[in-house]
Design goal:
250 residues, Alpha-Beta Plaits, EC 5.4.99.12 (chains A, B), PsdUridine_synth_cat_dom_sf (chains A, B), homodimer, PsdUridine_synth_TruA_C (chains A, B)
Chain lengths: 250, 250
């Protein structure tokens, strides 16, 4: 029986070329999910299973709460689907939940908001056990300054300066309603919540905030960086390993 | 100037053939530490640096609090030694502390006790982010039964049934003064504290407790297993990835 399903997925992005299926690249999250589900449902070659993610994550970016929707023609129960997927997916992809849902549900079109976390680490030792999930900083940035700058980035703005896609033709206006910077031991974690994020946007926001924290960009420049609508004005794109998609709101 | 140093070290044991230096095996923790320190101090080839660990960990076993002692001929400060080591050691070995200490201090001979943790995980999803640091269980074992059995293992006993070294000629009597089994979410963590542990002992204790938890070994058999002094009577050796040396007491 054909039904629409909502999947909640975690993955360690280290080994993958990102979420999106790509020709000749076997290691993508979407590609792995689709090939397991195509096999599971014996879908014909000319009509393979198509998994719709809530968005794309870049190569090397992780997820704890990616949501995807997929139409499956199967008599299996939700639990059986989850068990099958976890058995045949590689150990760095986990399906945490499978729920039958309205046929109108679409993981991307219906997403109302997303939470991303960017994790940094500093210290005289090394983060041996989560080295693939943090950005190691040479020294501690000024967190108060970063919080001041974050306040100026919150709100509905044209985030073109923070967009990694130079050819972006659609609107680059987004609403970021929260940026929280939490300190815990040797960790500094940036939490971003908004209605949507442009390509590389969270990583460029983080890279810019870190430049503020190191005194390379004054807090007073933030307004001008936003207004410039010029990627060259913002800070560098922070590397992918610190980033994790935490939650998608519907 | 020649001085004795106490090192506190963490490592992700996944890629290593264990702590102990071995001929023709480059990937050992002791070997990595010694080669970095030999280079740092320009020690002569016929008198390379010798690092003494508090004990040996098996291939694939991790440590958060390994302690080692080493005599170094250097004018560098403790902080400089730590910085040099962390710079040249691979990313899966971290030196957390370097302290000059009495020349009489020896990490193995002076160790009074050790804490090991064995981490298990069960559930319908998969532990994507710490998959290399846990044993994934097919189903949840009976924790109360395991706690009952653990009480019978606590104390000073001949642990020959729990020793992986068949040729062990020295005493196999050890004192295990605490075995705590903690549940948190999908995790079950076994904490072992004792004055010393035989080869594979923590892994065989864990493997035996899990058999109790699955009903394959009755709690009432534990006393007999200890008394038998026969490795064949105890449960299997739990795999290395769940094990971590947490702390060494002096």
């Amino acid at each position: 029986m054909k039904r629409n399903y909502k999947l909640q997925i975690s993955y360690d992005g280290t080994r993958f070329y990102g979420w999106e299926r790509q020709p000749n690249k076997e290691m993508t999250i979407q590609g792995k999910l689709e090939s397991v589900l195509t096999k599971m449902t014996n879908a014909p070659d000319d009509d393979p299973v198509n998994v719709n993610g809530s968005g794309r994550t870049d190569a090397g970016v992780h997820a704890r709460g990616m949501v995807a929707s997929v139409v499956l023609d199967t008599d299996m129960t939700e639990d059986e689907i989850q068990e099958y997927m976890n058995k045949y997916l590689p150990e760095d992809i986990s399906v945490n939940e499978v729920r039958a849902c309205s046929e109108r549900f679409h993981a991307r079109y219906n997403a109302l908001g997303k939470t991303y976390r960017y994790t940094c680490w500093y210290g005289t030792s090394k983060p041996v056990f989560d080295r693939k999930y943090v950005l190691v900083l040479e020294e501690k940035p000024d967190v108060d300054k970063m919080r001041e700058a974050a306040l100026l980035l919150i709100g509905t703005h044209d985030f073109k300066s923070f967009c990694g896609n130079k050819k972006m033709k659609k609107s680059t206006v987004r609403c970021v309603d929260a940026i929280n910077i939490e300190e815990s031991g040797n960790y500094i974690r940036f939490y971003f919540h908004g209605n949507g994020f442009l390509q590389n946007m969270v990583r460029i926001l983080t890279g810019t905030l870190l430049e503020v924290g190191y005194g390379n960009i004054p807090v007073s420049d933030i307004k001008g960086i936003l207004e410039a609508c010029d990627r060259q004005k913002a800070g560098p794109t922070a590397p992918p390993e610190g980033l994790c998609l935490m939650k998608v709101d519907y």
